[in-house]
Amino acid sequence: MIFQIILLIMLAYVVGFIYMGLYRNITARIQGRYGPTVYQTFYDSIKLFSKKNSVSYGWMFYLGPVIMATGAVLTLILVPVFSDSDFLRSVTTQGNLFLLLYLMVLGPLGNALAVGTGGNPFGVMGVVRGLTRLIGLELPFYIAVVGLIIASNSSDIVHIIDLQKTTGLNILVHPFLFIAAMISMVGFFGASPFDIPGAPQEVYSGPRTEFSGKFLALLMSQGSIFAFAKLVLIIDLFLGGADSLWMLVIKTFAIFITIIFIGIVYGRYKVEQAVDFLMKIPTLIGVIGLVRIIWFG
Amino acid sequence: MMESGFHGCDLDDSLKCKLEESGTQNTHSVMEKAAAWFRSRSIFVVAYGTGCGAIEMPPTFTSRYDAERMGVVGVATPRQADLIILSGYLAYKTLRRVIRTYEQMQKPKYIITLGSCPINGGMYWDSYNTIKKLDDYLPVDVSVVGCMPRPEAVIDGFSLLQKRIKNGEKAGWEKYDENLDFYKKNQKRVLGNHVDPSYETDWYNLENGSEV
Amino acid sequence: MIELISKLEKLSLELVQKQDYLYKVEVKKEQLESLLLSFLNEFGYITLDSINCRDDLEEGNFVITYCLLTPKRDHVVMVQTSIERENASLPSIHTFWPQAEIMEREMHEMFGVDFPGHPTLIDFALEYWDNIPPLRRDFDTLQYVNDMNPFRGQRDDALDAKVEMKKKREAKKAAKLKAEQEAAAKAELETQNNPSQEVQNEE
Amino acid sequence: MAIDVKGVLSPLSAIGTLFEHPKTITYPAVKKDIPLGYRGFHINNLETCIGCASCEEVCMNDAIDMVHPDIEYNIKNTSGCVPRIDYGRCCWCSLCTDVCPPDSLKLDNICTHADSNPDNFLYMPKNHKSIGEEVS
Amino acid sequence: MKNDLENTIKIFHGPQHPGITGNMSVELDLLGETIKRAQTHVGYLHRGFEKLVERRTVVQAFTIVCRICVPEPDPNEENFARAVENLTGLEISEKAKYIRTMVLEMQRLATMFLWMGGQAGSIGLGLIPQWSVCDRDYMLDLFEELTGGRVYHMYAFPGGVRRDLPEGFLSRLSDLLDYYEKRIIVYNNTFFDNIIFKKRAIGVGIVNADDVIKNAYVGQVMRGCGIKKDVRKDMPYLMYDKLDFDIPVQSDGDVYARALVRRDEMLQSIKILRQIIKQMPSEGDILQKIPKHRKFKLPADDTYVQTESARGAMSYYMAGDGSEKIRRMQVRGPSLVHAYTLLEKLLVDSQLSDVAMTMNSLGICPPEIER
Question: Looking at domain B29-204, which of 1.20.120.420, 3.30.240.20, 3.40.50.12280, 3.20.20.510 is its CATH number?
Fold first, then answer.
């Protein structure tokens, strides 16, 4: 069990970083340049871990990235990676979607605690922006998840995956829910137009402004692990999970590249505009999906 | 690149001579060598547009010359940066901010200067508001010559810095730590006692909120 | 334009055409504020483009030029006045033109011209400046630089070309004297010493 | 609520660039051709330089020093000196080459130099005749 | 209001900030994300150009003026050259005039591409800067060929220009213009029509048309308010009175209107350049015979010249005193009033997110504010 968890974390670390590298590479290609190698994010991460000193503001500042990383790792081990095999299943049978949704907001809260002690106004501003955005992001995502729970009569992810084998993929059965979840997933990934907390032209790096060296490396690692967990969650919920490594890569990459494309061609919303948009369009789509399930499903 | 032509001169100032010592650092252990390699492959840059050179930063970092393929990528805050690019002459007012920015950066940290002006005054050699020799105030790792240096020259500067990091040569921040008195004395000479805004100033609890 | 000339003649002022689109009127300091007001309110020159200052050290005064435009923006009128260099002071016109505030602030810093009634005569570009205002012509910037900043000291081996020329010429002369070919050599040297120094075109 | 369909969809056309060839010049592997008239580093034809110091006189940056060269030079050199340029001062305005009476001082199209020691920027123009004749 | 100011936090937007145009800073008092007070600080780039020019002869000083505004050096060179020509009465040949006009328009295009990158970057659209800066680089390649310099051209000289056109230059320029025309359609799709840009830019940073005339706002700020004024038409210099072009205007006065004005001006620049390519005389002097640099004397007189730069009218006041040195040269760029009088006013009650966008759309260039 422990071995599997460690293996899973390592897999997520590697895959997450390669995806981040691909993100930079594909972005660069669309921008008309070659871009860095795929491994560049590894280099960055290891370099940041090898920095000689990192500024700190007391124990709460240390704890913030750790809480975030905990949230990411817990999310990861509760999401079943493969649908059929028991391999890397780890503890997925113990959790359910409600716990997962709770864990997903753990990160931003840990961030807020740490940045508060840092005292940088841009960091605080970034956290406030992040939490404001989170309100907007969660609503459509929760609606989508609730819809799925009602439709499949269970909050167990494994059950939801299994059910898709008989009823067909949720992306086809419940397209509205998928769109609502997808739009908020763009925001969860921090891609444009919802990359408001860390907008460099406005608040430097936002919450990360004061983090440096090892803290930043930890944040980057948790970011990539969390990204992998979120991708796997989406394919579990809507694309029927993956039964082999190839399937996993293909499906997560399809989701991932959609997010990249959306992120690259649109600019950034203002905070109110983003919340306004998220409260209106994806929420409306989600509600349509929900109504469809309750009345017709 | 440049095979002949440039030649340095002996310096009589003893303190200056001490600064010039650049030898191989103690990077014997494998771990340190690996760390140096990773440092050279990944350089986070905060580009401080102190002068005209800011105009050649966009071409260097965007698609025509694409510095990111060398692992050189821009970041927003000095806290996360390894390298600060000082692109051109520095006015006294800017020097105050640059010193503060440099001190906010986390070690190991490096400085690249662009253009003639930080080397020996450049075309503003008789201007009353710019400093002439940046290496008196901050430890410069690599100087790139030109007015303005082309993006190719800037990339050459990056390559030279990467080579120096990889070989474990003595970097500027180590000189700065060892000779802090020398640098602080020089900074004080041109900036007076107004090395302001002070690093410790509590901006948010000032007596008079609007007064800077 | 003829209208403006006649209006100015009433005030016993002369409008001079300098270029195709450029006119100039010179005025005494006492008349300045009222003239600018009448340019703004009566003549229709409602845009203040810039305020320029020039230091005539030899005559002991500052020459201030206000450049005004009509909404048609098809010509510029320069209203020029000169004030004493010592304790220079001008009426502030920021109440008529808001942008004059920043122009006057700059002039105050760079020339030390005082503007009574100006709300924000604070630092513009300089910080903690304690010398005489830098754009006054009695401020020697090279002197200031030499006091503040050492230059790189490796160029001390530079030679004065004039001295070297002289040295070489004398050495040559001595050699030629020995060879008793003085006259011919001298003529040749004469031509070389005065190379033409024209700025040349790119061919 | 009118939805701006064009505004939503037309930016997506940018994705097509993904399949185009990048425009990047992968310097130092690939070097862009710098035209010959480019104002790069100096070259001086010592065989024709007459040491008149016109360049030193016209230089507003005080960048040019007249020094004795360490190799043989033009016999007709009036002062026995040749220019040496401080690249901590030079702005590549090419006024010095414009006023040069025998046209010996030129600007080359080589223009990149980086060094870790800021004292290494005194430049003795190379004696490069072949390029010197091509640059008009 | 007083209560508001007490609860504000003060942040410095700059000098080292990705969202600022160059090396300057804006001091903001924020209440939440709303700006209650804004104050511009410059001086980080002050070099004392006007002092340096006084120390140099005319020939020496011409190399320094192009550094006054880094993104677009050529209007400065043109202003300097024309001011000296006005003072000394030098006449320049028709070919030199055409070349100078061409260089000015090429520079305008290059500056616009750089602006587009900044404007798109300020709303987080990282794609456009990557493209447009690259496209600008193609223009710089042509400059390299023509003038020998990439950014600082030092080309327009009192009395003409310093070099003749290289062989085949005009056809290469024509090819580049074809490419630019295609690219502008692409930018139209991806940037100007982008829904996010519209959402963010429409209704932000509205300038009042009455203020424009009185406060001497120039350039796109003026034309974005529907005032059809351009120095190239009103006080034509060089060959502009012989060329056919329009002055694009928009009426809304907001950031989006200014963006559209700039886009249309790019198309007009291309149109002007095409005419110049057609009309360029093949023969003619490019540089008048001028005295050598210690003997080039300016009469004791003063003049005032204006050039339409890519960001608005840029003016030089120049006075000579009978010696070979310039008595006084004062620069009045478009940024001075924009960065102080206008920006401080526009930012009040707007959002922190709008600062970078507003600054970019005003075309603020710090080195020209403080010289």
Answer: 3.40.50.12280
